[in-house]
């Protein structure tokens, strides 16, 4: 399930980033833009979704799905792989200045990943386990693209079907359609 709880923070970041470029928008306009980026018709609709997704344990603790941070060394290669090959979309991106490293959030369906060029954020060669359904269709979609550097297979394992892809930086995404026993 996708979480939208950080949408207000995203709107504030958007406002600040635009203001730094001498583009002024109201906070309500920023909220509407963020709602549109999440695929909702307006902020009120997204806000209602946020309220319905917040779950708590004993009214005090809320734990959201983890978001893997994966290391990148090239914006072009990262975009080619994650957007072009895997079909993820960029939700937002951030740089402290135009000549500084990129940090971006990508998503597809209910999975979110962060890609960072910052040397202290992650170590290349990490693995993210991604639960999904429709793995055979996704496998066909990826292989139909004839991506030069990756032609994954689907493997039967005791817990279901797995397809591992390796990005240009050595990070693995292990897509898994689990069997329910």
Automatic annotation (TrEMBL):
**The protein's name:** Bleomycin resistance protein
Q: What is the lineage of its organism?
A: Bacteria, Pseudomonadati, Pseudomonadota, Alphaproteobacteria, Hyphomicrobiales
Which SUPFAM superfamilies does the entry link to? Glyoxalase/Bleomycin resistance protein/Dihydroxybiphenyl dioxygenase (SSF54593)
Q: Name one Pfam family in it.
A: Glyoxalase_7
Q: Name one GO biological process term.
A: response to antibiotic
Q: Note the superkingdom of the native organism.
A: Bacteria
Species for this entry: Terrihabitans soli
The family assignment reads: Belongs to the bleomycin resistance protein family.
Q: Which UniProt keywords apply?
A: Antibiotic resistance
According to the entry, every stretch annotated as the VOC domain falls at 64-178
Reply yes or no: does the keyword Isomerase apply.
Answer: no
């Amino acid at each position: 399930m996708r979480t939208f709880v950080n949408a207000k923070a995203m709107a504030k970041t958007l406002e600040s980033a635009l203001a730094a470029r001498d583009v002024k928008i109201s906070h309500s306009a920023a909220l509407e833009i963020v709602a549109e980026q999440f695929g909702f018709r307006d902020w009120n609709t997204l806000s209602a979704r946020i309220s319905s997704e917040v779950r708590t344990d004993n009214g005090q603790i809320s734990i959201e799905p983890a978001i893997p941070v994966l290391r990148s060394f090239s914006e072009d290669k990262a975009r080619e792989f994650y957007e072009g090959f895997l079909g993820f979309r960029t939700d937002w991106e951030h740089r402290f200045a135009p000549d500084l490293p990129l940090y971006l959030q990508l998503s597809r369906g209910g999975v979110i990943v962060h890609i960072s060029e910052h040397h202290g954020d992650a170590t290349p060669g990490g693995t993210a386990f991604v639960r999904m359904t429709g793995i055979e269709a996704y496998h066909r979609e990826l292989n139909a693209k004839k991506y030069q550097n990756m032609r994954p297979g689907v493997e039967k394992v005791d817990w279901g079907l797995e397809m591992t892809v390796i990005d240009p930086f050595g990070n693995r995404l292990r897509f898994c359609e689990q069997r329910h026993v």
